[in-house]
Specification:
12% strand; alpha+beta; two-stranded antiparallel sheet; five-stranded mixed β-sheet; 10 helices; Heat Shock Protein 90; 2 domains; 7 strands
Length: 396
């Protein structure tokens, strides 16, 4: 018997609307009971002797005694409490439903999002601003970001799959040709092309792993002498810069920033190599500056500026260039990148094939360090990359 009773109550759900309704009813009953008790207490002061009419002509009219008056107060109080309970139940149920309606809409949007429909929004047009509209706006903002990130992840995964498949397909094609006619194979050239294509695939996988690592958690920050890191990267880039006929100039202030030294080195390397490769055919230059500036009583900002000569660049193309695999963002770069799919390096001698993750990786590194990266066309041609990094770890 107990099991059957437990089973019957197990499906009963006490909703927020029911709790609010019961709260309204209990409040009304408590208020009515207090009023009745006060009235009864006041009526206790009615004299306890026989009452007579004030007008002698009304002497024959019946006059209620004290006991009868108290009995009438108790009966009226009981009836009023029953009426309050009924009105409180109906009115409380209606009011609770009206108050909780935004939560029902929010719950419906959450269920749709859980089922994969991220396009649905709660919205609160024309409503008076209150806690529910603030919650709805916050929820809509969260859905906007989730939808944007989901589309970005899907696009990134599709592009990554395509980019990873390309070098593998190129290597497979070269091996198939060699196996079909092994006597007519130039082994040194084949090995060189396989090495170049395989290196591109390894660099792509490395960049993907670095991007994924930046999303796993906060950085472990240590003091990094940024000007020394930039000097080391300039030394590494000088050989490629000489191949392209590009002069690298530096003006570095001694500064220290909190961060990851390896990631900051990768950031500077990506920006410098990008500036060297996307430059003029001859007589090009790259200017690197590190400056510290004070923007508040306790917050200093370190700015890394990398500017280069080159052809005119459209601002919209620079915005697109920060998207993963956006290789064709700037028209003047297409000729340099067009030979990648065939395994060659068209354009300037010594040009290294790009996987289109340099700027996106740089942007994520800057974001992970709490800074900003801005790319802007340089008057006269070329690009100016400005990286602003906090010189102190934020306490917020």
């Amino acid at each position: 018997m107990t099991g059957a009773t437990d089973g019957a109550w197990s499906g009963f759900r006490v909703t927020a609307r029911l709790r609010l309704t019961l709260s309204y009813v209990l409040f009304l009953l408590a208020a009515g009971a207090v009023s009745a008790v006060c009235l009864y207490a006041v009526m206790r002061f009615v004299p306890d002797y026989p009452l007579t009419a004030a007008n002698p002509r009304d002497a024959d009219l019946p006059v209620a005694s004290r006991g009868e008056i108290l009995d009438a107060v108790v009966q009226a109080s009981a009836v009023s409490l029953v009426v309050l309970a009924l009105l409180g139940s109906v009115g409380g149920w209606w009011l609770a439903g009206r108050v909780l309606r935004p939560l029902a809409e929010l719950n419906a949007a959450a269920r749709a999002a859980a089922d994969g429909d991220l396009a649905r929004r709660v919205g609160s047009p024309g409503r008076r601003r209150d806690e529910f509209t603030d919650l709805a706006d916050t929820f809509d903002s969260m859905l906007d970001r989730l939808e944007r990130d989901l589309h970005g992840q899907r696009r990134f995964a599709a592009n990554a799959s395509h980019e990873l498949r390309t070098p593998l397909a190129v290597m497979q094609a070269m091996l198939d040709v060699a196996r079909a006619d092994p006597d007519d194979v130039d082994v040194p050239e084949l090995l060189d092309r396989l090495h170049t294509t395989n290196r591109r695939a390894v660099e792509l996988v490395t960049a993907l792993l670095e991007l994924a690592a930046l999303d796993r958690g906060p950085l472990v920050r240590t003091p990094v002498v940024l000007d020394v890191v930039v000097e080391d990267v300039i030394d590494d880039v000088q050989a490629e810069a000489r191949q392209h006929g590009v002069e690298v100039r530096a003006d570095l202030e001694p500064v220290t920033v909190p961060g990851d030294e390896a990631l900051l080195g990768r950031l500077v390397d990506n920006l410098l190599r990008n500036a060297v490769r996307h430059n003029l055919p001859t007589g090009g230059w790259v200017d690197v500056r590190v400056v510290a500036e004070r923007r508040g009583p306790v917050r200093d900002v370190v700015t890394l500026l990398v500017s280069n000569s080159g052809p005119d660049v459209d601002a919209r193309a620079l915005a697109v260039a920060q998207e993963p695999f956006a290789r064709d963002a700037a028209p003047q770069w297409r000729g340099q990148e067009s030979g990648e799919r065939s395994g060659s390096t068209a354009g300037r001698p010594g040009l290294t094939a790009s996987h289109g993750l340099g700027l996106p990786l740089a942007a994520r590194i800057v974001e992970a360090h709490g800074g900003t990266l801005r790319l802007a066309p340089r008057p006269g041609g070329g690009v100016v990359a400005a990286v602003s990094l906090p010189a102190h770890v934020s306490q917020g």
